[in-house]
Amino acid sequence: MPQAESSSRPEIANFDDLVARLSEPELRLPKRLKQVAKFVLNNPEDTAIYSIVELSRMADVPISTFTRFSKELGFAGFSEFQSVFRQRLLGPKTTDTDRRRALADTPLRDTTSGIDLDDPNAVFDAFIHAGIDTLLRLEDEVDRSVLADFVSTLAEARTIHIVSARGAFGVGAYCFYGFSQVGKHANLIDNTGAMRAEQIRFMQPEDVALVITFDDYTAETLEIAEKVVAKGHRLLCITDNEMSPAARIASHALYVREGHLGHFRLQIPAMALCQSLIVSVGRKVSRGSRKQQRSQAADPS
Fold first, then answer.
1. Do 70 and 60 form a contact (C-beta atoms < 8 A)?
2. Staple partner for 110: which of 62, 148, 210, 260, CB 3.0–4.6 Å?
C-alpha cells in the first residue's frame, strides 16, 4: 500500500483514488511529472501491462521520472504504483471489455513503432485496431450519470455555444451541424478574425457553452472557457482526462481518452460520443415540441 503523505491525505487504494488525487486543485507537479500524470490517465491499460522502460519510452520521459512520480504520490516505488492499474485492469468492471478488446488483436499504443508507414494496408489496419480499442475503452469508462446530465443540460439550454479549435475543431464543427439538424439552436465559436470575445458577448443566462479540447489544450479555447465561467454561464466540457484545465472549471465533464498513432489523434471516440449526445438531445427536443403542440391544441386560448 502507498504511504500517506499526511493525515489529511488518504492513501491511494485504487484507480479512482488516484484520479481523485491527480484532480486535486492544490496538487502542483513539475512539468515532467505532469507529463507522466497525463500519460497514465490517458493510457491506463498500457500502464498496467508494460514495463517502466517501455512506458518511459512511450511517454517520452526518462525512467527516473516514472519513479519520481510514483514516490510523489506516496508509493514506495513504480511497482507499487503500477499495481493500482493492474488491479483496475483485472477487476470485475473491465472483464467483459477485456474479452471484447481481444478482437482488436493488438493493444492501443501511442507510437507508430513497428508499423510500416510505406504500406497503406498496415497504416489502415493500425488505425482500425486503435479505433476499436478506443471505442471499447470509451464504452467502459464513460460516466453514465454525467452523460445523462449532459443531455438534459444541452436539451434545456436556449442556445448551445460550441467552443473548439485546431485538432478538436472538426468534432466541434460536426456538433454545430448535428445539433442544428435536430432542431437545437447552436452557435459555433470559431474565433473568426480573432473575435472570440465578441462571439460569446451575447450569451444569455439560459445558454450553455460546450467546450471540446484535448491535450495540448488550445489556449484560445481555455480563454473562452474561463470567460464563460467568469460571466456566470454554465460550461460543459469534453476532454481527455481529469487534469484538463477545462475540466476543472466545468460543471460537468465527459472524458475521451483518445488513442494516438504517432502525431495523429484518433477522433473516432470523440465523434461517437458527440453523435450520441446529438441524437439524445434531438429526441428530447422533439418530445418537448410535440408535448407543447398537444397542450396548445387542448387549450386554443
1. no
2. 260
Q: Which three cell numbers stand for residue 39?
A: 500519460
For 15-90, CATH number?
1.10.10.10
| 273: its cell numbers | 460520443
Among 154, 138, 112, which Cα is nearest to 273's? 138
The model carries a pTM of 0.71
pLDDT means per 10 residues, the chain with 301 residues, are: 47 89 86 92 87 91 94 91 87 50 44 67 83 86 94 95 92 95 92 79 92 89 92 94 91 87 80 95 81 60 55
Q: What is the rounded CA–CA span in Å between residue 197 and residue 189?
A: 9
Which residues on neighbouring strands pair with residue 160, listed in sequence order? 186, 208
Furthest C-alpha separation in the chain: 75
* Cβ atoms of residues 67 and 96 within 8 Å: no
Q: Beta partners for 254?
A: 238
CA-to-CA distance for 140 and 254, rounded, in angstroms? 13
